[in-house]
Write a structure and sequence with these properties.
single chain, binds flavin mononucleotide
């Protein structure tokens, strides 16, 4: 089974979870940003695991991304805008056949989320979602991840490999 983990991540939390999921799925599974996950990188893929941060209660839009780029003076670092939003990546994903799984990073109490939007778009592209998706928790607005989330992501990756494999 060929699996690829794809992420959008402005401050690195979602990227760290993506790398842990990829480790859990198994050796050789890449964790790629939406810029790196080109059609070539997806050639022959059976499972796409896609994740994004919840921003403004939803899968990040271009509007919230540009407002973050202009105005988050209290952020510990500049947001990484080097790769496109997961929303636009999924909307331009070439049609394929396979399975998908979704995850999000978020504050525990927030309404809204990303996984529904990811599942809907991946399904449209021909990658049938496995389950509702998984949430990984940060302790504050910009992170860090709550203790134990990296281990939980690795374990979830192992489970996904069993389900899809
Ligand atoms: C402008 C902004 C809006 C956010 N909105 C939400 C939100 O609506 N719900 C939520 O759970 N977390 C929200 N967060 C927290 C982020 O989802 C969280 O920090 C996430 O892990 C960031 O992921 P990244 O480091 O991969 O960019 C927000 C953070 C920022 C900076």
């Amino acid at each position: 089974m060929k699996a690829v983990v794809v992420y959008e991540s402005l401050w690195g939390n979602t990227a760290a979870i993506a790398r842990a999921i990829a480790e859990g799925i198994g050796e050789g599974t890449p964790a790629l940003s939406t810029a790196e996950a080109t059609p070539d990188a997806l050639e022959g893929v059976d499972l796409i695991v896609a994740g994004a941060p919840v921003l403004g209660f939803s899968l990040p839009t271009d509007t919230i991304r540009s407002s973050i780029e202009k105005g988050e003076p209290k952020a510990p670092a500049r947001p990484d805008m080097s790769h496109p939003s997961m929303r636009s990546w999924l909307d331009s994903l070439p049609k394929g056949t396979g399975r998908s799984a979704s995850f999000e990073t978020r504050i525990w109490w927030s309404p809204g989320g990303c996984t529904k939007g990811i599942n809907k778009r991946a399904g449209h592209a021909g990658y049938e979602p496995i389950g509702k998706g998984e949430r990984f928790i940060v302790t504050d607005r910009y992170g860090p991840l709550r203790d134990g989330e990296i281990e939980r992501a690795r374990a979830w990756g192992m489970e996904l490999a069993k389900t899809a494999g």
